[in-house]
Amino acid sequence: MTSPPTEAAIARPSFVPLRERLATFRPGLLLSVAVLVVAALACVAPGLLAPASPTDADPVAALLPPGGEHWFGTDQLGRDVYARVVHGARHSLLLGVGATALGVLVGLLIGLPSALLGRFADQVAMRSMDVMLALPELLLALLVIAVVGPSSVNAALAIAVSSVPGYARLVRGQAQVVRRAEYIRSAIGLGLRRRTVVLRHVVPNTLGPLVVPATLGVGTAIIAGSALSFLGLGPKAPTPEWGAMLAQGRDALQSAWWIAVFPGAAITLSVVAVTVVGRQLHIGLEGRPGR
Amino acid sequence: MTVSTTEPAPDAPDPADAANTEDAPDGPDAASPPDPTASALAVRSLTVSFGHGRRRRTVVHDVSLTLAPGECLALVGESGSGKSVTARSLIGLAGPDAAVRAEGLWVNGRDATGFRERDWRTVRGRVVGLVSQDALGALDPLRRIGAEVAEPLLVHSLATRAEVPGRVNALLAGAGVPEPEVRARQYPHQLSGGLRQRALIASATAGGPRVIVADEPTTALDVTVQARVLELLRELKESGTALLLISHDLAVVAQLADRIAVMTDGRVVESGPAADVLGAPVHPYTRTLIASVPGRRPPEPAPRAPAGEGDVRPLLSGTGLVKRYASPGGGRRTAVSHVDFTVAPGETLGVVGESGSGKSTLAALAMGLLAPDEGEVLLDGGPWSALDERRRRPLRRDIQLVHQDPLGSFDPRFTVRRILDEALSVAGPARAVRRRERAAELLDQVGLDPELLERRPARLSGGQRQRVAIARALATGPRLLVCDEPVSALDVTVQAQVLELLARLRETYGLAMLFISHDLAVVQQVSDRVLVMRDGVVVEQGPVAEVLGAPAHPYTRTLLASVPRLPDHAS
Fold first, then answer.
1. Residue A28 pLDDT
2. Percent of chain B, pLDDT > 90?
3. pLDDT confidence of B11, banded at 50, 70, 90?
4. pLDDT tens digits, residue range B110-147?
5. pLDDT class for A82, splitting at 50, 70, 90?
6. CB contact under 8 A, A189 and B396
7. Half-sphere exposure of B296 (CA within 13 A, CB side)
8. Least CA distance to A3: which residue of chain B?
9. Average confidence score pLDDT of chain A
10. Neighbouring residues of A153: CB distance < 8 A, sequence distance ≥ 6
């Protein structure tokens, strides 16, 4: 093709429109948000999604395959698996969210003084974190359970404790960056009190960049929580918890696959959804102007 | 596909037809453009836009330029004027998102309108060399300098492998790099900024290009280093290389350019021989630009000189200040060494020095943000640096800082209103409603619309940000402003406005200033007295007219001689 001299394109237009359209249309993100909305609904009002009771046993209807009456089938005791998955969301997801929130909070309480108070505090805090990091997270959680005993709350506590060293290190690193920022010097130069500077400027700007790792951490915490329940160290028996349901369905996997597969899918879906949304947050926040 | 419909710029050569015939004849009338096929680089009606559909933004409108062999054409403009995009489009480097159109483009006489990436590759380095501002970014951090310089030689098969080391040494030596054998084996981060820029020039000239496109080649450099790099570019030009020089700095351009094209908002508003553009500018924008160059007024004796040195107690003074930092390789580096200074009430003390001279450390010492290792800073004759922070805090409102990077000095989450409110809460009215009103007044004082109160600084322009920073500094009712390179990051017209604002505020409030800058011309314009620093030591100090008019120390003289100035005949 020969262009007339008045309209010679030196660089041909690239395929930006298509790329832009792909960039704005993200089915995976939409789907993930939808999954999280449903999961949140299941946490807040499980009765709305699944009117059946998650704990009522009906021996006559035991081990029914998925069908019209029981969408996800029934388990060995004749409990509706769908109802149990829906009602289990509260335990499994809140465990993940709660454990992460606690982990971040304690991480902040250790990491911040570590970054701000000088070398001795830093050494003490970070070396103790190193000791904790030396143990695998799940082992550390098991250790905590061994001390405090198995229960729903203790499982969250155990997972929180095992995640503290990671968050403490992140907080410390971020706080060290923020501490040296010019706006901190400006705040000091204005004559603000140290406490004001820390609470108003250092803490919020340290926590901001933590949103993304914490969101991704929720996914990890859900898995860890399910793992503890699977081992029987989570909530007590009739409580519908995804990890515990997996354990319960494990022996019947060949005859009644649905008992384990549906809670397993629920774990996978929610972890993937949390991770996808977390990544998107990451991209969104990285791109924001002015740090 | 759109054809640019904009009118040609006043002085641009008319778009002649038959542009791409081999021997386009020059028309009988004298204004007709030179034959593009005989030029080093030429473009006619260049239009560059980014984005598509409604989001399409045209950043270069209908620009026509011709660069003759051995000539230096300077493209001058402020940030966002489209000068860099223009230059990069001429060598096919506008980027994948740019839509570049022109009636004609010639590189070394070859019609380049149909060039594909493969064609450009044969031209770049061999026919056209690029020198960019950011030498650290332009050099691969993982490759030695020698490999970088050798690359064009090998890519264009201009030397055999055996010849390469000798050629590289010759090129580095030619670019004024001392000890080329040693430097060739080093990595970019081991070189100083000036040496890096020279290595980049060596690499750009390795292929013996006919044209060099230099995009702000000296902007990040100290003046004395800048002078040497400009000298190097001049030698290249004299050896017959055509030079397209892109710069925001008219004074730099005046050193080299044969012809100047002034760009603003993507258009060339004025172009012509350098002497004409600088001496008799026609377009109002060019006039503003020239008038904004700092230090154009001859140094005048301080008009509001403090009432005698002896009987006025200094507002802030430092004696025998020493500050050392631990250096990465162990040991200590002395950043500030036995410095004495005084600032009288209402007086402006300028501090001049190149990078690493310790001037920012001096600012931090004056602010009481760093404690000196030796010596003491006194405020009103009483202790300042020796106070503990609890006792110093209530006095901090008296000394406020205006920083080079205003954006970095604001909490990124804060709006302008919160920024000002925080400063007002230190010393302003107690009631929140009154502080709101006061914040609006402050913005008004620094020449900003109070509507900007709800904006975040990231969404303001550089000049607006610096005005907000000044408003914040004023909020505590200070007696001394420490200005650390307050206008260095600003465009020259904005710089002139901010300097004017500072001068006005100084008159209004009787503010004293400690004004720190690498730019002699700026310091000369604002200061009563000046202090010249080098390697942490004060080499000379005194009244501006004395120090800059009749410098006693050789370093001051070198510094003064290195500052590019507009020729005297400039309007």
1. 85
2. 46
3. very low
4. 888 888 888 888 888 889 999 887 777 788 889 999 99
5. very high
6. yes
7. 17
8. B114
9. 85
10. none
Identify the closest residue of chain A to B4 by CA–CA distance: A7
Poorest-confidence range of A16-25, A203-212, B362-371? A16-25
The tokens describing B474, both together, are 């004023």
- How far is it, in rounded angstroms, from Cα A31 to Cα A35? 6
In angstroms, the separation between the Cα of residue A69 and the nearest Cα of chain B is: 53
B326 bridge partner residues: B332
Distance between A211 CA and the closest CA of chain B, angstroms: 15
Check A182 against B405: CB less than 8 A apart: yes
Strands B537-543 and B374-379: unpaired
Question: Which amino acid would we find at residue A35?
Answer: V
Q: Residue B303 — left, alpha, or beta (φ > 0 → left; ψ -120 to 50 → alpha)?
A: alpha
Give, as one character, the DSSP assignment of residue B7.
P
Residue B43 near residue B103 (C-beta atoms within 8 A): no
d(CA B271, CA B275): 11
Per-domain residue ranges of chain B: 316-324+332-562
- Single-letter amino acid code for the residue at B146: G
Cα–Cα distance for residue pair B236/B535, rounded to 1 Å: 32
pLDDT, one tens digit per residue, over B523-532 is 988 999 999 9
Q: For A22-28, what is the mean pLDDT?
A: 68
pLDDT band at A21 (very low <50, low <70, confident <90, very high): low
Reduced to 3 states, what is the DSSP secondary structure of residue B245? strand
With beta carbons less than 8 A apart as the criterion, state whether B59 and B143 touch: no
CB B180 within 8 A of CB B198: no
β-strands B259-264, B382-383: how paired? Answer: unpaired
Q: Of A89, A111, A114, A201, nearest to A163 (Cα)?
A: A111
Q: Tell me the C-alpha distance between B513 and B366, whole Å.
A: 11
Q: With contacts defined as CB-CB under 8 Å, which chain B residues touch A186?
A: 401, 403, 409-410, 472
Q: Does the CB of A172 have a partner CB in chain B at under 8 Å?
A: no
What is the C-alpha separation between B18 and A246, in angstroms, rounded? 79
Under 8 Å CB pairs connecting chains A and B tally to 114
Residues of B with Cβ-Cβ distance to A8 under 8 angstroms: 101-105, 113-114
Q: What is the mean pLDDT of residues A43-57?
A: 87
**Single-letter amino acid code for the residue at B256:** L
* pLDDT, tens only, B274-289: 999 998 999 999 999 8
The pLDDT confidence band at residue B539, using thresholds 50, 70 and 90, is very high
C-beta separation of B92 from B7 below 8 A: no
Tokens of B396: 């901090």
Q: Is B322 exposed, middle or buried (0-12, 13-18, 19+ CB in 10 A)?
A: middle
In order of their start, the domains of chain A are 33-286 (1.10.3720.10)
- Which of B546, B510, B547, B543 is CA-nearest to residue B529? B543
State how far the alpha carbon of B266 is from the alpha carbons of A5, A70, B83, B476, B493, in Å. Answer: 22, 68, 7, 41, 17
Q: Which helix (H) or strand (E) holds B106?
A: strand B104-107
- Residue from B67, B567, B48 nearest B267 by CA: B48
ipTM confidence: 0.76
SS3 for B2?
A: coil
SS3 B242: strand
Q: Is the pLDDT of residue B474 over 60?
A: yes
Phi, psi at residue B376, to the nearest 5°? -150, 145
What is the CATH architecture assignment of B316-324+332-562?
A: 3-Layer(aba) Sandwich (3.40)
- B17-59 pLDDT, tens digit per residue, is 333 333 334 434 444 456 777 888 999 999 999 887 777 889 9
CB contact under 8 A, B411 and A187: yes
Chain A contact set for B103 (CB, 8 A): 5-6, 8
